[in-house]
Specification:
The chain is an alpha+beta fold and 421 residues long. The chain contains 14 helices and 23 strands. The structure holds ligand EPZ. Ligand EPZ binds next to helix 1, helix 5, helix 6 and helix 12. The site of ligand EPZ has 26 residues, from helix 1, helix 5, helix 6 and helix 12.
């Protein structure tokens, strides 16, 4: 178990380069299996989820060259020419939520797929019924037995799928399967997240015909084959938001570089409402806060609403606000496990179902705490940076899944952080 020891109470000052977006990388990497030649995927973050996907692609017979350089901005060359169907061991898929994208890819390329159901995680049940609804609409037989999803179809045929719920994973998985299907697939009530668009851009560069990504209706005209191509992953706006909130919570001044400001609109709007000054200069966003935040209300929604992955970090900022804030988590049914840990640091938060009522306090104090999931870990790091005294955070491996070189980046911002593996 790795842990971070943080001595808080110091304003963060400086700039941090944001890496490639985790949730795009874990969609584009499996998508490279659809092509019949090598693809180069650039701007990959040096995170655990990317390393696990590289292992999975190798397990499936691909040649994977290069590893995301420790300096970030890594590139992988994936050559799928020897890709062949294989069962994926649960030991691999349980380490990576997004292993379910292999279903859409193997169904399209091999005509059948067997992927262990990804474990739930600490934010909710993580169902995949909408993914399977899409595969069945495309003509696949789908069963779930002994925790393994099996899907098969000699050839997928295009269909119209109306998603019951806006689902990023289902939108992406159906898009992946539909690229090589016979005919046209229309996904209605599709997710509009920037990484849905990023994946569509990769697929179209590889010869697919995807239109409408970024809107709630996506049309995919099936093609015979895709060829390898080069694609740079978009920046990770969740990582950017996390560092901006850390800057605000420590009453410092932080600039995040290599971002697409548009992707951060809902987060910037909320931070400004809470009293932060935010300045945009090209692909740099700078945040400054020199006093207590104002209490604001937050409701998480699909993009372009406030992102659920930033709910836990902003809860920490609001725990220090003047007044009472209401945070409503409308996406996941239990994404408040960080609250129990935050209470140990002096917050005053009451959780009722999917709502957290946050009475702002004027200071947090350091304490031993434990990360329960990726973004909860990020929230605890922010709390530790803002708190007086020392905090030890265990379970930091969870943070490694989505934040590349976090210790190094925090130290560069002036934080007093030591990592013990
Ligand atoms: C993706 O998860 C992200 N993960 C999550 O980020 C993120 O929180 C989520 O999108 C929402 O933005 C990856 O991209 C790997 P959904 P995903 O399908 O695709 C329900 C992080 O911290 N639903 O958009 O699994 C579901 O229960 C992670 O980086 C169904 O009911 O999320 C949820 O309430 C955490 N049936 C809602 O839809 C389905 O078949 C949104 O889920 C699928 C989803």
């Amino acid at each position: 178990m790795a842990r971070l020891i943080i001595r808080g109470g110091k304003p963060l000052r400086g700039k941090v380069r944001v890496g490639g977006r985790k949730n795009s990388a874990v969609a584009v990497l499996p998508a490279t299996l659809l092509a019949d030649g090598p693809s180069t995927v650039e701007n990959l973050p040096a995170i655990e989820d990317v390393r696990v996907y590289a292992e999975i692609l190798t397990h499936l017979g691909c040649r994977v060259a290069g590893v995301p350089a420790p300096s970030g901005n890594g590139a992988l060359v994936v050559d799928p020419r020897d890709f062949a169907f294989a069962e994926i061991p649960y030991a691999l898929t349980k380490r990576l939520r997004a292993s379910y994208y292999l279903l859409g890819v193997m169904l399209a390329r091999c005509g059948h797929a067997e992927v262990p159901l990804p474990g739930g995680c600490d934010i909710g049940l993580r169902p995949i019924d909408q993914h399977l609804k899409g595969f069945r609409a495309l003509g696949a037989e789908v069963t779930i037995e002994h925790g393994v999803v099996r899907a098969s179809a000699p050839r997928l045929t295009g269909a119209t799928v109306y998603l019951d719920v806006v689902s990023v994973g289902a939108t992406i998985n159906i898009m992946l399967a539909a690229t090589l299907a016979e005919g046209t697939t229309i996904i209605e009530n599709a997710a509009k997240e920037p990484h849905v668009v990023d994946l569509a851009n990769y697929l179209n560069a590889a010869g697919a015909r995807v239109q409408g990504a970024g809107t709630d209706v996506i049309r995919i005209r099936g093609v015979e084959r895709l060829q390898g191509c080069t694609h740079a992953i978009i920046p990770d706006e969740i990582e950017a938001a996390t560092y901006m909130i850390a800057g605000a919570a420590t009453r410092g001044e932080v600039s995040v570089e290599n971002v697409i400001p548009k992707h951060l609109d809902p987060v910037v709007a909320k931070l400004q409402e809470a009293g932060a000054e935010v300045e945009e200069r090209g692909d740099v966003l700078s945040i400054r806060m020199d006093r207590r935040p104002r209490a604001v209300n937050v409701k998480t929604l699909p993009y372009p609403g406030f992102p659920t992955d930033v709910q836990q970090p902003i809860t920490v900022l609001l725990s220090l606000a003047e007044g009472t804030s209401i945070v409503t988590e409308s996406i996941w049914e239990s994404r408040f496990k960080h609250v129990d840990e935050l209470k140990r640091m002096g917050t005053n938060i009451r959780v009722e179902g999917r709502t957290a009522i946050i009475e702002g306090v004027d200071r947090l104090t350091g304490a031993p705490v434990r990360a329960t999931d990726l973004r909860a870990g990020a929230a605890l790091v922010i709390a530790a940076l803002a708190a007086e005294g020392q905090t030890e955070i265990s379970g930091i491996e969870l943070v490694d899944r989505g934040y590349e070189r976090a210790t190094e980046k925090l130290i560069a911002l002036g934080a007093d952080v030591v990592r013990e593996d």
